[in-house]
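Sample A.
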Amino acid sequence: MMAGRSTDSIDPPAGTQALLFDCDGTLVDTMGLYRICWRQVFGRHGFEMTDEWFATWAGHSMRPFGGAALPDADEGFIEAVSAEGVDLFLESTHLLEPLEHVVAIAREYHGRIPMAVVSGGPRSAVVASLDAVGITELFDAIVTVSDVAHGKPAPDVYRKAIADLGVHAEKCVAYEDTASGFESARSAGIPIVFDVR
């Protein structure tokens, strides 16, 4: 269920200074919509995306995700294809639903301790997803791959969120659903990372 504790509960322990939530697949059920969008976009460019491939690469930031699908493409082309996929996703965010078992934690602790969204996705897609399910206002900060040099699995997004909130990594709890997210949070020094899948 998580790293650092042996319980099925995803409630943070006493003394937690901040809660840090991934967005896609953690707060908002975006993965099905992303799968549809990326299958279409990659298909236009000659890559037939399988569910197995998507399961492996979901949660990575755009550069490694696009590069894995189109390994011979240059950086500019990957950026263009990434923008195409995000645009298609943005057209359909009205279809999204919250993942209530995690959102319930955010609602419970809203206003009690600082909270941030920490995502490997681009800011436009993350904010649109949060807005679509009506939870943007729960969070004190939103940190995305658009705000840092390196996305997940690098620790940059978590380190920035911790700095923005003015808290200590060892007193934070993270909520994640992918291997790259777990690695990102742990590399930033966060001792408790709940697996919310």
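Sample B, a different protein:
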Amino acid sequence: MSSKWDNNKNQKRTALLENAFDLFITKGINKTSISDIVEKAGVAKGTFYLYFKDKDDIRNRLILHKINHIFSEAEKALAKTTLTDFTERIIFITGFILDCLQEDTSILALTAKNLNWGSFKRVVKSDKNDELNLYDLYVSQFENGRQKYKNTEILVYMIIEFITSTCYSSILYGEPASLTELKPYLYDTIRAMMKTQEL
């Protein structure tokens, strides 16, 4: 009985996320109301507030839900490689995620640079519904490796902020260079960032 209720609950949450995503992409976030989302999802308005505080909350959780899925696929792809060097494993995951974002720019368009580190950390650490906790997963990658770093959280913060701010314009607009042209510079900088923080 409980599992059937949980399954129904997850279906409603997923329906809200998927329909919000469709509306945000087609109409834009500002022109989409909570009423639009619940109507498209086929649920009562009160149901929305069981899962989300407001429109910003569903947007932030939606972005993380999508990125968690991409990160999960990156982890699967990494498992098929023979890479053992930790830095190169981080570079591989970074490249995989960037390629996915370039293939489907809707997630980047949705973020519009509005998801900052504070909301990223707060949402991922509080969201028990996602299959992955991206923040903890990133940190555990660093903390469980053989190489130790001065401050794992700061290093993860710097890498994520650097990647997102640097690649946003490159992926969406090809400025100041295409992602293919940018990658070698990006990877060298990540390697340098990690090297300077080694203990």
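Observation for Sample B: Residues 55-196 form a domain with the Tetracycline Repressor; domain 2 fold (CATH 1.10.357).
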